[in-house]
Inverse folding.
């Protein structure tokens, strides 16, 4: 980036060379830093992170080749472009300079115009490289927002992600009580703001418990423990996350202007998971276990966590439960359920 903010470290043991190069850079709007030795150059580069380094080769104690080697070994300075400016102008000297990691080589006595032209070129290249890296990082962040990390990594490395069968998973379904009625009173902007804040809190809870949010559908929230990373204690993790969600919302109600209640249902069993779509990726889960978790939610009560018999059996006595009477579930018949005790 060719602006006055571009900082260039000039490294030379001769005071006159430092003076001439620094003055030339100032005239062009750059901000020069100075070092009279390789050791000092490494220290300044690590602390100041210059945009480019002009480095002499023939210096006492630590020459230019040794200096660039030290710079390239340090992760903080490895990507800073280095231009050698040296009286060593044999072809073998230049080849050695490029092999050591320099991006360019200027022979002494140098012409100011040549130095400025090369500096400008490499600053533009560095700016372009940073822009590409920033866009790549942004793309990866977006990918991790819609896919679990393990799935995203597989997709990036292979270009595909095979569906998998997970024999032991615990699912959680939740929805907000009377959401349609309340959202109509709040209006679109306030409703979205409320959902964003609530789901952000839920996401933090899932991350803390080692669970994975699968998706949201309106005010409904679906999460899983044991997908895509298999977990031995998936039922315990998800049940604890469910309790945390209820506690989070209760605390939020005490502090915020709008009060919300949720119903939560949890069920354990097998499921298939994989990526759906080509242009817009969605990581989704399928199977009767997902449907059963939804049924557990619909038969729960406000601010209560309702567990299936399968999840309760996996928990044992690690979490206090309250047995319920068998409940007739559409398409499944009578099912035993358990409330997590408040």
């Amino acid at each position: 980036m060719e602006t006055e903010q571009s900082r260039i470290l000039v490294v030379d043991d001769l005071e006159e060379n430092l003076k001439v190069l620094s003055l030339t850079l100032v005239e062009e709007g750059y901000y020069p830093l100075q070092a009279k030795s390789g050791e000092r150059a490494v220290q300044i580069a690590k602390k100041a992170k210059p945009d480019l380094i002009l480095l002499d080769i023939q210096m006492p104690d630590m020459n230019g080749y040794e200096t660039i080697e030290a710079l390239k070994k340090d992760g903080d300075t490895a990507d800073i472009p280095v231009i050698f400016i040296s009286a060593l102008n044999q072809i073998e000297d230049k080849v050695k300079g490029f092999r050591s990691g320099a991006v360019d080589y200027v022979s002494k006595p140098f012409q100011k115009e040549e130095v400025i032209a090369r500096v400008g070129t490499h600053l533009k290249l560095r700016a372009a490289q940073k822009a590409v890296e920033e866009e790549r990082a942004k793309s990866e962040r977006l990918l991790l927002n819609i896919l679990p990390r393990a799935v995203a990594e597989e997709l990036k490395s292979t270009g595909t992600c095979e569906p998998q069968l997970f024999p032991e998973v615990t699912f959680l379904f939740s929805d907000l009580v009377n959401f349609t009625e309340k959202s109509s009173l709040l209006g679109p902007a306030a409703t979205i703001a409320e959902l964003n804040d609530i789901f952000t809190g839920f996401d933090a809870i899932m991350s803390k418990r080692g669970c994975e949010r699968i998706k949201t559908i309106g005010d409904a929230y679906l999460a899983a423990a044991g997908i895509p990373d298999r977990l031995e204690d998936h039922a315990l993790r998800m049940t604890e996350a469910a309790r945390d969600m209820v506690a989070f919302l209760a605390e939020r109600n005490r502090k915020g202007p709008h009060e919300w209640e949720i119903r939560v249902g949890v069920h354990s069993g097998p499921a298939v998971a994989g990526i759906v779509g080509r242009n817009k990726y969605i990581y989704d889960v399928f199977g009767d276990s997902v449907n059963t978790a939804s049924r557990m939610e619909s038969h729960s009560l406000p601010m209560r966590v309702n567990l299936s018999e399968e999840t309760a059996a996996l928990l044992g006595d690690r979490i206090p439960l309250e047995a319920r009477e068998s409940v007739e579930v559409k398409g499944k018949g009578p099912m035993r359920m358990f409330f997590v005790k408040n």
Notes: The chain has a mean pLDDT of 89. The chain has two domains: 7-127, 161-340. The two ends are 59 Å apart (CA to CA).
